[in-house]
Every structure is written in C-alpha cells, then in structure tokens.
Fold each of these.
Amino acid sequence: MSGTRKVLVAEDSSVIQNLTKKILQFQNYQITAVKNGKQVIDKIEKEEFDVILMDINMPIMDGMECARKIRAMDNAQKSQTPIIAITGNAQNYSMDDFKEAGINEYLPKPLNFDNLVEMVKKYA
C-alpha cells in the first residue's frame, strides 16, 4: 500500500461511526467522519478520498441523493470515488437502485466488520 488510504465515513449513528473509525484506523486507514450527505459533498469538494462509506438513511441529504451528486461532479477523479453504501434498509432498495445512484457495493447493518475491512481493501 503506497501511502495512507483515506476513507470518508458518512454515518449519522455515532456508535457505528466510532466503531467503523476504530476498526479502519487499526487497518492503517486515515478516517474522516461526517453525519450527513451535505457534509460529504462539502468534504469531497475540499479533499480527495480513496473510498466513501455512506449510510443511506441520513438527515439533510440521504446517501442515494449524495451518491448521485458525487457522480455528477465536474472533477472526474472525485466523481469516480468508490462508494460503499451502509444500510439497515437494504430490502427497500435493489442492487439496481444502488447502481443507478452510482453506488459500487453495499453492506447491510448490523455491520460485519470483517466484510467491511475486505470491501474497503477491495476499493482503496
């Protein structure tokens, strides 16, 4: 791995956010955490990330809308940042819905942290 990989975690649950941060930091990822989709857009406009972990159900802007906004960005590198959805309501969406929004993969809640680490490694 060349350099530290940067992961943006978008999750409105502090418990899930903190667990995810600790597990990924233990794997030597640099973590930035935000609570809603608007903050994701603000962060990605200022910084580049190797992968985005995004809760689907967040206040202000949900993960689906946020993914569409990222994919519509003018900066080609930023618009192609891999997005992994995290959701407790996967049954409300099909993989086609996620793909249409520009989401690469999804992880169901409750999170299996081994799967989380593997998926982040795959995309970062």
Amino acid sequence: MVTRTRLYHDGTLLLEDFPARDLSAHLADPAAVLWLDLYRPGAAEFTMLGQEFGIHELALEDAAQRGQRPKLDRYRTHEFLSAYAVTVSPDGAELTYSEIAVFLTRQAMITVRNDEGFDIENVVARWDESPDLAGHGVGFLLHGLLDHLVDGHFAAVQQLDDSVEELEGLLFAAGRRQIESVQRRVFALRKSLVRLRRVVLPMREVVNALMRPGLHVITDPLVPYYQDVYDHVLRVTEWTESLRDLVVSVMETNLSVQANRMNLVMKKVTSWAAIIAVPTAITGYYGQNLPYPGFGRESGFITSAAVIVVLSAVLYLTFKRKDWL
C-alpha cells in the first residue's frame, strides 16, 4: 500500500507526505485540514480509518468493494462519495475507467484508489495552482478532485464525438471490405457511450447534492466554482445522450446504405438476366426439331441473329437510360 498525505493550516500547505501515525496529532488542531490518499489499502488501513476518522462500517465496505455506482451517501459525521475517472483509447472506440472512493469529514478528505489509472498527480497540481482557495478547507480539496474528474469526462465524450464524425465520413465511402469494419466500430462506440453514460449521468445528482446548503461541505465563496463543475457535468450528460442517438442513427443509416447497395446489385443482375433471356429464348425457339420460318435456310439464321442483336441492344439502352446498369 502507498500512502500520501498533506496538511493545510489556515489555508497554507505546511506538511506533505508525513507518516500516517501523526494523523491523530494533527486532527487535534481545529484549524488543520488533512488529505490522506490510500492506494490499494488492506483491512488494517480500513480499520484505522474507522478509528481515526469515525468512518461508518457501511461506507468502509463500499470503499473496499469495487464497482460502486457514482453516488454521495451522508452519514452523521461524514459523507462518502464514489466516482470514476475515464479514458478513451487512441482509436476512440474503447473506454476504460478507474474508480475512486472519497470520505469527507469536517477536517479531512480521504481518497481510496485500487488501480493506477487514476491520475492523482493532476489533482495535486490543481490544488497547487489555486493556493488562494486553500483557506476553504475540505471544499477546496474536493473541488480540485471533482474538477479533474469532470474534465476527464468532457475530454472522453469529445474524443468519442470525433470518432463518430470520422465514422460518418466512412459510412458512404466504405467499400465492400470496409462494411464489416464500420459495423464493428459502430458497435464499439455504442458500447463505450453506454459505459460512459453510466458514469456521467449519476454525477449530476452527486454534484447537485454537494451544493445543497444543509451539507456544509461547500462554503459560499466556493459555490461559483462548484456551479461551474455542475455546468460541465450537465454538458457532458447532454452530449453523451446526443451521441448515443447519433450512433443509433449511424447504425440505421449503415443498414439503409447496405440495403440500397443490395437493390442496386439486384437491378443490375435483373437487367443482365433480361438481356440474356432474349438470345436464350430465340435460340431455343429456332433450336426446335420442327420446321419453322427459314428452316434450313441461311435467311433464317440471319433473321434470328438480327433479332437477338436488336432486342438485346434495345434492352441494354433502356436499362442504361433508367440507370439500372
């Protein structure tokens, strides 16, 4: 397990990466604000959280189990928040996410991570870029974390949007060999958007709940900053929903394009079959073992050949004019 710590006092960063055993001494100071980051903690670390910070056993159980829905649970002495950071593969089709659990007390924010996909260094950098907000305590720390998460959601949906636009360009230009590739990419994009929706849609309620006056996590000066985060959450949610509808439209258009191509092929096959049917019918008629006009004469052969050529040419020109060939 890897542990990271920070101590703020009256809006000033005093200590960083101090031992976890010093938490009790720092918590004794009412003006102290702590950040504790636990990477892949074990049972002993969760027990320590329950003893030092009074974390409820149900919240500890949710943090230990992966796959929680993004949510905000309120307890008597603290809040528990579950959220996800997302990334999109370079081809813009596969989405991966990293879960993070957050405990919020009056004096501390504790983050719990179970994989390396979450870029905690970016969160720390955001805190260092806004030292003037550090005096707002836990609300300041939480804002930097949420801002990082929502910006990641925004970047992911923008990358997926670019992939959908690229797919639209390939839709009508795709040849026979690319049809299967387009279908595979459409399916992958739809799957990624469904997974992204499961992450971003609940965040709307999470941020909205944090901004409620009775929670006492956000001070009045931080409300505009959280409102900005909430606006980004709404934009990401609406963008994700519109992209899902657009991918469905692409799938339907792809089926329509294939149907149109099939109709075109069928028209060509039918036209050539009609043209070939003319010489087949005439030669079959003249091939009967019975006397017919011109039987045994050169004029009969010339007449049948002329009829075949003329009728085939007429049919070819007719189908060509109707754009069937």
